[in-house]
Amino acid sequence: MAMKRLLLISNSTQHGQGYLDHCEAEIRDFLRSVERVLFVPFALHDRPAYAEKVRQRMGPMGYEVTSLHEAPDPIEAVRGTQAIFIGGGNTFRLLDALYALDLLGPIRRQVEGGIPYLGASAGSNVACVTIKTTNDMPIVQPTGFDALNLVPFNINPHYIDPDPASTHQGETREERIREFHEVNDPPVVGLREGSMLRIEGSRVTLKGRTGARIFVKEQEPREFAPGASLDFLLAGPRP
């Protein structure tokens, strides 16, 4: 079997930097000799503008970007690409479009066959078991919450640590993830902005600068620093 390869980024824009600036070097190293990238712009309403933004950013990096919303046959476009990039935005809108176009299976088969998968924010969410740990509002109702299931865990992108000085009385991100584990099993990676997961076959490496907090059902959360090996995440719901 081909080696599954994914780069799952918490955020596409870091404070004080431009679009993809903080992860450009990692993207270049991850995509290696890829020349053509298929971009999936379904997480935002203005798909043409989103696609153009990605072309303007990735073109100078040496990649020819085609957008899935322009393809006369989206399934054939997925089958014929060298790499897939699913961008951020609203995760519910994104998953709804993937269901409507019957793209979950074709994308999954391509990635399982070795096609590199690049996801940012919502694009990282849909790579997981479900989208139940997204931060987004359900502005549309997809057929279900089951996602691409390319990895046996979930991600909470843009993870925010509790602020002891805050007067906010709503649930913290950690409390919401604990609620998730009251009725769901998959581990959850609280992926802080500036961090990303790189999956190469059976290896998972935490990349970036800010680390991650990992939640496993019925266990205390654990902190991991950039560079940490997280291979245990591929073991399934209860590593």
Provide key terms for this protein.
about 240 residues; alpha/beta; Rossmann fold; 4-stranded mixed β-sheet; 7 helices; 11 strands
Quick check: average pLDDT? Answer: 95
Radius of gyration, CA atoms, in whole angstroms: 17 Å
* SSE sequence, one letter per element: EHEHEHEHHEHEHEEEEE
Overall geometry comes to globular
Q: pLDDT under 50 segments (min length 5)? A: none
Structural class: alpha/beta
Can you name the CATH architecture? 3-Layer(aba) Sandwich
Beta-strand share of residues: 15-25%
Please characterize this protein's 3D structure.
There is one protein chain. With 239 residues, the protein is α/β, with parallel strands linked by helices. It has one domain: Class I glutamine amidotransferase (GATase) domain (Rossmann fold, 3-Layer(aba) Sandwich). 25% of the residues lie in helices and 21% in strands. A 7-stranded mixed beta sheet has the order 3-2-4-5-1-8-9, with helices on both faces. Strands 6-7-10-11 form a 4-stranded mixed beta sheet. Strand 6, helix 7 and strand 7 form a beta-alpha-beta unit. The radius of gyration is 17 Å and the shape is globular.
Topology diagram in text:
Elements: E1 5-9, H1 24-31, E2 36-40, H2 47-58, E3 64-67, H3 74-79, E4 84-86, H4 91-100, H5 104-112, E5 117-120, H6 122-125, E6 154-159, H7 173-183, E7 188-192, E8 195-200, E9 203-208, E10 212-215, E11 222-224
Parallel strand pairs: 1-5, 2-3, 2-4, 4-5, 6-7
Antiparallel strand pairs: 1-8, 7-10, 8-9, 10-11
